[in-house]
Amino acid sequence: MKLLNAGRFLLRGAAGVFLAAGALRAEEPEWKAVRETTFDLVWSTVNEAYYDPTFGGVDWAGIKKTYQARVEEADDKAELRGVLQAMLGELRKTHFAIVPREAAVFTPEERKQTGTTGAKFVTAGGEVVVADVAADSAAAAAGLRNGDKIRSVGGREVAEVARLYADTGVTEARRDFYLKSFVTAPLSGPVGGSVAVEVEGADGKVRTVELKSEMQQGAWSEPMGNLPSYPVAIEARRGEDGLGYLKFNTFSPALMKEIRVFLRELRTGDGLVIDLRGNPGGLILMASGLCGWLSAEEFSLGRMRMRSGLMNFDVFPQAKAFTGPVAVLIDSGSASTSEVLAAGLQEAGRARVFGETSAGAALPSAFLKLPTGDLLQYALADLTTPGGATLEGVGVTPDEPVKRSREDIAAESDPVLEAAKKWIGDRRRAGEGEGTK
What is the pLDDT along the chain (437 residues), one digit of tens a residue? Predict the structure, then answer.
């Protein structure tokens, strides 16, 4: 069992908005036994592993009785997933989810189960907006453009879902995190499938496009135990002006070598931007390793509290670590390990944080294979910053709040990055090294 903050498979919302892939009928005679065994395993795993024995005031034993009756009415795997996800949703925490086996990738042959339209999305002003369209992609062929607002996906209105989240009382950042997941989940379906999406252009005109799911190109991570494989991407460059820029889509060991090589290429007097916007997390131990190349001093990224005790995430300096000014960019799409990294560097005075409040979805979790073949993701610890602040449900507050509007996105303008570059430039001109003061 691996300790993870795998944001890719986060619970889609406190209200249980998780899009299961496929409604497979369970015809085998043993279905009743499998169904009951699966339910018992999910409930007991959470009961034994959840870091808070009081479950935050939730009557977990009472919830078992309530949902046990519902499980008896589940005729197939799809219905069972719905019941189990609803039960996990009662905890109102992230990192609790039932991941359908047919939506998980463990072999190269299964990569067709998770496709892409070639478009990336962000939230701006409470709306989900197209932020980047890959050339020669299905999204480009459909005419999607930066700044297009997503009005509905598969016939479900985004505004309706936004109202649902508002009624649950979640924070604005968490709402935006869920909204983006609501849009992107159905657009990551099996290769060859398609989804009808209603979009509104910058000119106010509304149109409906059919977005097809295509094969994910590029590198994939290796499966780790019960953690599926997923696409990985990185952008690492050093400009002639001595400004380094690092952006990666997930904390995967597959990217560590490239990150290490890039950071070691930075020179004395350089500056560095780490762009964690839209990064949903990954392997939490990567944050400590990455920070070891960014500091000449030992410090902590925080503490993890489990039923069995405490674990500190300490950072140990590496040889020839980069000690120039560091800016970290975050938004509501920055979750899990991204939040741990941003908060730890911020509290240590090693980086200045720019952008918007992060998702507040930062519970370390693990994956467990169920008798149905599906996967249970469950939180097994709480995590606090070195100063004792809780990230779950709160998020990281930037040192310099900067919003990127829909108009900025349409014009391909990035005021968050510009603010970070200006700060780094001022620091470099002043000849200052490590720290943010």
Answer: 334 443 333 332 333 333 333 334 445 569 999 999 999 999 999 999 999 999 999 999 999 999 999 999 999 999 999 999 999 999 999 999 999 999 999 999 999 999 999 999 999 999 999 999 999 999 999 999 999 999 999 999 999 999 998 888 889 999 999 999 999 999 999 999 999 999 999 899 999 999 999 999 999 999 999 999 999 999 999 999 999 999 999 999 999 999 999 999 999 999 999 999 999 999 999 999 999 999 999 999 999 999 989 999 999 999 999 999 999 999 999 999 999 999 999 999 999 999 999 999 999 999 999 999 999 999 999 999 999 999 999 999 999 999 999 999 999 999 999 999 999 999 999 886 554 44
Return the exposure string of 130-144: e unless at least 16 CB atoms fall within 10 Å of the residue's CB, then b.
Answer: bbebeeebbbebbeb
Which CATH fold topology does 115-212 show?
Pdz3 Domain (2.30.42)
Which amino acid would we find at residue 21? A
Q: Quickly list DSSP for 342-367.
A: HHHHHHTTS-EEEES--------EEE
Residue range 7-107 in CATH 3.30.750: yes
Burial of 1 (C-beta count, 10 Å sphere; 0-12/13-18/19+) = exposed
Angle, in degrees to the nearest 10, between helices 31-49 and 60-71: 170
- Beta carbons of 39 and 72 less than 8 angstroms apart: no
At 70, list the tokens.
């519902």
Give Rg (Cα) of the chain. Answer: 22
* Residues in the chain, overall count: 437
Q: Are 42 and 89 within 8 A, CB to CB? A: no
> Kindly report the CA angle at 55 between 52 and 58, in degrees rounded to 5?
170
Measured CA to CA in angstroms, residue 374 lies from 77, 97, 227, 370 at distances of 9, 10, 12, 5
Asked whether the whole model's pTM tops 0.85, one would answer yes
CATH superfamily of the domain spanning 234-363+378-429: 2-enoyl-CoA Hydratase; Chain A, domain 1 (3.90.226.10)
Listed by start position, the domains of the chain span: 7-107, 115-212, 234-363+378-429
Please state, in angstroms and rounded to a whole number, the distance separating the CA atoms of residues 219 and 178: 26
Please report which residue ranges of 90-198 form alpha helices under DSSP H: 138-141, 158-168, 172-184
3-state helix, strand, coil in the chain (%, to 5): 30, 25, 45
